[in-house]
Design goal:
The chain has helices at residues 3-7, 12-19, 24-31, 91-99, 115-126, 145-158, 175-180, 182-194, 209-219, 237-248, 267-280, 284-293, 308-319, 326-338, 348-352, 361-372, 377-385, 389-395, 401-406, 413-424, and strands at 66-68, 75-77, 79-82, 104-106, 135-140, 164-169, 198-205, 224-228, 252-256, 298-304. The chain is α/β, with parallel strands linked by helices. The chain folds into two domains: 66-335, NADP-dependent oxidoreductase domain (TIM Barrel, Alpha-Beta Barrel), CATH 3.20.20.100; 344-424, no CATH class.
Length: 425
């Protein structure tokens, strides 16, 4: 085994087994894992030795493709590392992600009760030179200046850094909420930037995304947005118009929830897609994220990657040059329509507006998705438990018939809500 093979954390066999067929050759070569001379005898005719021998080239690490993040002047890796896991015990994964050029790291003040930020801090504490290579993003749920300052300072302390590259208001619900707090947010942003605590500012949202994006595009001082965006949502005319408005406004966009999993699965329809992509060399997860990358306005795609298998699979998809065909994209659009009743599109103003009182229908459906489709049961139950007691007490026995009539997805909201209460309690 040659030296550069020994230096790689992951073996060639592990990489091939876990990345799947897509892009393995190009990723391995770029990683230096296939960059040394073979130990097996050469079967071809020997080549002539050049008169002036060239110095051996250093094995190259893969550098993920980058895209411009709006008009910030910054280029970010097309793949972003989601920090919804215990990064304290995943230092090897962080080191490997950086080694492969994954330099957009995302987290939030609340993830893992703070363990995610502490894990990043542990890494930067041990590797201070790495901080300047990372586009670091975190989020805070406050809606007032004092709360934002308190959360930001805590994040800075946890992550052992003097600044955050992009700071998000966490979980914006609709455009009205943004406009309602716009003046206070803007004043706070100016102070935080002047103090050099943040470079850029924006928000994350998985509710009423087109409305949130359209509101942001009108303000002129939002630098970035992280939004739920996937093959189930990308074909919507409202979403296309909202993305276009943000692109014209120079706002950098990061996609999340890109696997588009619902709270229940339609096995037959899903298998049709899976079989097609497997035949082409993709696995299902890779095909879903490659669909998102077909939109050049999406600067980066944020994925929760709590283990090396998922990290390698996503890296392989990002490095692979094969594009989805128009036919394949149309099949994905058709699949989205056929299985719409299994997926909440986040248009919470519609369903929740049909129910008297504060009933977070979309949030509960999302928690059911985490539980049923992502297998993240502890997180789902924790989020559900965070709902006010009086809200949880109402959910099981409400009449959801009007909300069901108005739901564009055709979701059997009442049945799903009752199931959610049962499995999440």
């Amino acid at each position: 085994m040659c030296n550069n093979e020994k230096e790689n954390i992951l073996s060639r066999r592990d990489f091939i087994r876990n990345t799947g067929a897509v892009g393995v050759g190009s990723v391995l070569t770029a990683a230096g894992i296939l960059g040394c001379k073979s130990d097996t005898p050469e079967t071809k005719e020997p080549q002539k030795v050049p008169t002036v021998p060239k110095a051996p080239e250093e094995p190259k690490e893969p550098r993920l493709p980058t895209r411009s993040f709006g008009r910030t002047g910054v280029k970010v890796s097309m793949l972003a590392l989601g920090g919804i896991f215990d990064t304290i015990n995943n230092q090897l994964l962080l080191r490997q992600a950086l080694k492969w050029g994954l330099r957009y790291w995302d987290t939030a003040n609340s993830y893992g009760g703070g363990k995610s930020e502490l894990g990043y801090g542990k890494f930067f504490g041990s590797n201070p030179e790495a901080r300047k290579e990372i586009f670091l993003v975190t989020k805070g749920g406050a809606r007032d200046s004092a709360g934002l300052t308190r959360m930001l300072d805590l994040s800075l302390e946890r992550m052992q850094t003097d600044y955050i590259d992009l700071y998000f208001i966490h979980g914006l619900r609709n455009g009205s909420e943004l406009l309602q707090h716009a003046d206070e947010f803007k004043a706070w942003v100016e102070k935080a930037k002047a103090a050099k605590k943040i470079r850029f500012f924006g928000f994350s949202t998985h509710s009423n995304m087109p409305d949130c994006l359209q509101a942001a595009a009108k303000l002129g001082w939002i630098n970035g947005i992280m939004l739920t965006y996937n093959y189930r949502l990308m074909f919507s005319e409202k979403m296309k118009a909202a993305i276009d408005a943000c692109t014209k406004a120079g706002i950098g966009l990061t996609a999340m929830k890109t696997q588009a999993k619902g709270f229940s699965e339609f096995a037959e329809q899903e298998q049709k897609l899976l079989d097609r992509f497997l035949a082409k060399g993709f696995n299902d997860a890779q095909a879903r994220i490659k669909a998102v990358w077909t939109n050049p306005s999406i600067a980066s795609l944020c994925s929760q990657m709590p283990n090396m298998n998922i990290l390698m699979s996503n890296i392989a998809a990002a490095m692979d040059k094969t594009k989805l065909s128009d036919t394949e994209l149309k099949l994905m659009e058709q699949n989205a329509k056929e299985t719409s009743a299994s997926y909440c599109a986040g248009c919470s103003d519609i369903c929740q507006g049909a129910i008297a009182g504060d009933v977070p229908i979309c949030d509960v459906l999302r928690y059911a998705m985490y539980h049923n489709s992502y297998g993240d049961r502890d997180r789902a139950k924790r989020l559900f438990a965070d709902l006010p007691v009086h809200v949880r007490a109402r959910l099981k026995n409400l009449d959801y018939s009007l909300a069901e009539k108005k739901c564009p997805q055709g979701i059997a909201i009442g049945a799903v809500m009752r199931q959610a209460v049962r499995i999440l309690t």
